[in-house]
Amino acid sequence: MDNARTDTTMSTETFQASRWTSGNFLFPTVIEVSDKAVMRRKRRWFSVDEMSISLSKVASVHITTGLIWAEIRIESSGGSDPLSSHGHTKGDARRIKELIEGHQGAQPHEAPEGAQSE
Questions:
Q1: Domain count for the chain
Q2: Which domain holds residue 70?
Q3: How far is CA 61 from CA 14, 75, 93, 96, in A?
Q4: Quick check: 86 pLDDT over 90?
Q5: Tell me: the pLDDT tens digits for 37-76?
Q6: Residues 6 or more apart in contact with residue 3 via CB below 8 angstroms
């Protein structure tokens, strides 16, 4: 089979904000989650604003849900500005959180300096 490598890496999943929410009518915000990073891409008339956070540096994922739409806020442990996006469906917001937490749970944890491993 040609798909021998796909079982070890996660494919990139893309989530687009609804065009019915403010600021997303012409150029909706897109969030991409891969096995290495989470990235927010916001197009404008003559530019693109991209922000990414390595999944190993994600400190928290916060979801605020409304009646229909959800806002997602991803904070990094590096102290940089949080990655935030509004206008996603509740299911998409939960899936983004699930992907990030699933990847973090699969990573081996490093022992702090000075700690002995058994």
A1: 1
A2: 13-106
A3: 17, 6, 10, 9
A4: yes
A5: 999 999 999 999 999 999 999 999 999 999 999 999 999 9
A6: none
